[in-house]
Amino acid sequence: MYLCRWYYLAGFLFLPFLWAINSFWFYHEAFKKPPFQEQKDIKTYVIRSAIGASIWFIGLLAWIITFQINRSSWGELGDQLSFVIPTGRA
């Protein structure tokens, strides 16, 4: 339970991949094993980690789509935000 809680709390440091790892790694412990004392706490951390990772994934996907569609129309700002400036439309 200590590791599950640690991954959950570390996810708040803008490390959503820890939430994803937590939700996959401890899924079996939380939902498939026979009941044990800490299972309720582990379920809570697994569910919250999955929700947090999903929100981050949706937000990141929305930003990627928005940026790819609008980068060229943002002019200099779009160029400043780009690591590699693609050739094509000006």
TrEMBL record:
InterPro entries attached to this UniProt entry: Gamma_Secretase_Asp_P_PEN2
GO cellular component: gamma-secretase complex
Membrane protein topology class: Multi-pass membrane protein
Keyword Transmembrane attached: yes
Localization of this protein: Membrane
Protein name as catalogued: Gamma-secretase subunit PEN-2
Family of this protein: Belongs to the PEN-2 family.
A Pfam short name: PEN-2
Organism: Allacma fusca
Principal location listed in the UniProt entry: membrane
Keywords for this protein: Membrane, Notch signaling pathway, Transmembrane, Transmembrane helix
Regions that span the bilayer: 6-25, 45-65
GO process terms (BP): Notch receptor processing; Notch signaling pathway
